[in-house]
């Protein structure tokens, strides 16, 4: 009979531990540039229009009447109203994340004009600048971004010397006027994000060509991954959601093609139910 080796088998080596050392990201200097063309005064929708089925159902059943003495309908929400509200929410949220972020503001007519030149973390001065933004009563024949890039390049050098990072957020509202610039290829030292609010395509406008021009501008100047988000739905909540996406720090972003947030709750619920059915787990339902 063979002898039994009393030595226990050697334990398998523990897998190496992976650790990511904490790194402090540079604080941001964020320059908002808001389009003040007449199209910035276009009305936005408060909610999606009801479907035909919903309309027929509502006509078949009595609807609650507004309370006696109720005032007239609410005034329409315009793009500039939504922009001002979104900027206030953005500044509050960003400073909640880190109070060292700073902000400046500019407007875009035919070219760029500074509204608040000095970058600051002061909430009061940011609110004052935001509330001063208003749409023009006329359309501008052109939208020249050259001055915006010139300002951003100078501010980008200053921010870099202070260990900070400069980002420009452009909110553009024109459905037919393509922006242009005369900006030579220089070392890229700032990140550009764009939100494009436009009308639905018609025979009288060309939002696709405007969007393509905005993409070209972003790719020409952006140092890190810049996002371009657009909507022609006219829903304020879609615009607010896009502003929330731009809260992300440029050094913590995936490329936009891999961006899959925010997720739709309904789609997530359906995916969970499908996975449970595949596992044979019963899914409760109302009878």
Automatic annotation (TrEMBL):
Keywords: Cytoplasm, DNA damage, DNA repair, Nucleus. It is found in: Nucleus. Residues 45-76 are annotated as: Disordered. InterPro entries: BABAM1. The keyword Cytoplasm applies. Residues 46-73 have a biased composition (Low complexity). One of its GO terms (biological process) is DNA repair. Its main location: nucleus. PANTHER family: BRISC AND BRCA1-A COMPLEX MEMBER 1 (PTHR15660:SF1). This is BRISC and BRCA1-A complex member 1. The lineage of its organism: Eukaryota, Viridiplantae, Streptophyta, Embryophyta, Tracheophyta.
